[in-house]
Amino acid sequence: MKVDIPIPCPSCGGKMYSVAYNPALKILKNRSWHVCKECNFERNVEDFKKAICCA
Ligand SMILES: [Zn+2]
């Protein structure tokens, strides 16, 4: 599953895309993160959401 929404990179202002990883083991949580196409900056989506709700 991949949702390609343009998200501005906080590091360089380039476009970021979302990556989702669905582990085969159910004990592991699904992971998703944003990756910048320009500078490879990465951020965890959960941390990003926490930053938004606590701002
Ligand atoms: Zn960037």
Characterization of this structure:
The protein is α+β, with helices and mostly antiparallel strands and 55 residues long. It has one domain (7-53). 16% of the residues lie in helices and 33% in strands. The chain has 1 helix and 4 strands; from the N terminus they run ββββα. It has one helix at residues 45-53; strands at 7-8, 15-21, 31-36, 42-44. A 4-stranded antiparallel beta sheet has the order 1-2-3-4. The chain starts with 6 loop residues before the first strand and ends with a helix. The model has no long low-confidence stretch (mean pLDDT 82). Bound molecules: zinc ion. Residues 9, 11-12, 14, 36, 38-39, 41 line the site of zinc ion.
Outline of the structure:
The chain is an alpha+beta fold and about 55 residues long. The protein has one helix at about 45-55, and strands spanning about 5-10, 15-20, 30-35, 40-45. It has a 4-stranded antiparallel sheet.
The molecules bound to the chains, other than polymers, are: zinc ion
Shape annotation? flat
What is the alpha-carbon Rg in Å? Answer: 12 Å
Number of strands: 4
SSE-based structural type: alpha+beta
The H-and-E topology, N to C, reads as EEEEH
Distance between the termini: 29 Å
Average pLDDT, all residues: 82
Strand content: 25-35%
The unreliable regions are none
Proportion in helices: 10-25%
H/I helix tally: 1
The number of distinct structural domains comes to 1
Which sheet architecture does the biggest sheet show?
Answer: 4 strands, antiparallel
Largest sheet strand order:
1-2-3-4
Question: What tags apply to this protein structure?
Answer:
single chain; 55 residues; alpha+beta; four-stranded antiparallel sheet; 1 helix; flat; binds zinc ion
